[in-house]
Specification:
The chain has about 375 residues and is an all-alpha fold. The chain has 2 domains: about 140 residues, no CATH class; about 220 residues, no CATH class. About 80% of the residues lie in helices and about 0% in strands. The longest helix is centred in the middle third of the chain and has 45 residues. The chain is flat, with a radius of gyration of 26 Å. The protein starts with a helix and ends with a helix.
């Protein structure tokens, strides 16, 4: 039986790559995205032909793809690229794991389309060194990670504070103490997340800056050796040796550009990443956590007792369902499956803490 999900996945990928090409300013990179779009469409048609189905039955883009288009129009199309690349890495990993379990030979087609993109770019003779560096910076899954961080930040706040609130509600039968506890839990969790994010970003920046300075020292004391390293880097990517040497020779003339590429290739550091503000990251983390954590607390501002407990559970379940639905942007799973799974796990966690709170409350009362 034909797997309609596979066809829809290919159609969506082709649609999104075409969207990226449409909004890409660099003609060479836009051409690559167009090629990827055609590859995906070809895969979808191949699925139909294999199952003796007419090409006219090819579906249009799904609701998920259209939502990603909307996100791209608001937040920038790098977010779409990030989600696409994350999805392809996940698909590739699943295929490789399945082959290992069945001892099947690995095929080139198993590798992620990220690799295909690199190969197309590396073997295009008209690509310049600056375009290559720019594309490699762009195709990192920044967008996917940013969206995922937003979803998971809200999820952490909602689940942790929902469980805390239900635990205290169980012990106090939903009295006003729950409101104080909920607000305290929100602030404590959000501040902890913010401080952790600030320390993480700041420490990473300081370490990277130290490593980058060492690389600059090497570039100043031995530019010939660094030029050879650059040439080898491009040659290892599949660029013809003569072209790789010329690219390295051109780049080494601009010490700052050469330094940027060397630290990225040798150390895995992108200079643009160091421009991010640790305080901005901390504030963002605080807001995302607090946005989720406030949901189970809202009813206790207006009600108390089991009315507040019931409303808190309903609001939290709704929030969990929305978070589960948002996760499908990355996984491609059914909205209903992911949404209700998130609700189930969240309610189980809250029920456990409510039960424990109830036991503690009875014990203290006795």
């Amino acid at each position: 039986m034909i797997n309609l999900k596979n066809i829809q996945t290919e159609v969506d990928a082709g649609y999104l790559y075409a969207l990226l090409a449409e909004h890409e300013e660099d003609e060479n990179v836009a051409n690559i995205f167009n090629q990827m779009s055609e590859i995906e469409k070809g895969h979808a048609l191949a699925f139909l032909q294999k199952n003796e189905m007419d090409a006219s039955l090819l579906p249009g883009p799904s609701r998920r793809a259209k939502i990603l288009k909307l996100i791209g129009s608001v937040l920038g199309y790098d977010y779409i690229l990030g989600v696409l690349l994350d999805s392809e890495k996940s698909i590739s990993s699943s295929v490789l794991n399945a082959r290992k379990k069945t001892n099947s030979p690995i095929s080139l087609s198993d590798t992620a389309h990220v690799t295909i993109l690199k190969n197309i770019l590396s073997n295009t003779q008209t690509i310049t060194a600056s375009t290559l560096a720019r594309f490699e910076k762009r195709h990192r899954s920044v967008g996917g990670n940013a969206l995922r961080a937003a979803v998971l930040g809200g999820n952490d706040g909602l689940v942790s504070n929902f469980s805390l609130v239900m635990g205290i509600a169980g012990a106090t039968s939903g009295q006003k103490e729950v409101l104080l506890t909920g607000i305290a839990g929100l602030l404590a969790g959000a501040l902890s997340m913010a401080l952790g994010e600030w320390i993480s970003v700041k420490s990473s920046q300081e370490l990277s800056e130290n490593q980058m300075q060492l690389e600059m020292d090497e570039l100043e004391t031995n530019p010939e050796g660094e030029e050879k390293e650059l040439a080898l880097i491009y040659y290892s990517k599949g660029i013809p040796e003569a072209q790789a040497k010329q690219m390295a020779k051109d780049i080494i003339q601009d010490k700052d550009k050469a330094h940027e590429i060397l630290v990225k290739e040798e150390l895995g550091i992108n200079a643009d990443d160091l421009k991010g503000s640790a305080m901005e990251a901390a504030v963002t983390s605080f807001v995302l956590f607090a946005a989720g954590a406030i949901i189970p607390v809202i009813p206790f501002f207006m009600f108390e007792g089991y009315t507040a407990i019931g409303l808190s559970a309903i609001l939290s379940a709704g929030g969990l369902f929305l978070i589960g639905s948002a996760i499908t942007l990355f996984t491609g799973k059914s909205i209903w499956f992911s949404g209700f799974r998130q609700v189930l796990f969240g309610l189980i966690a809250a029920a456990i803490t409510f039960g424990i709170g109830k036991l503690i409350g009875v014990s203290l009362a006795g």
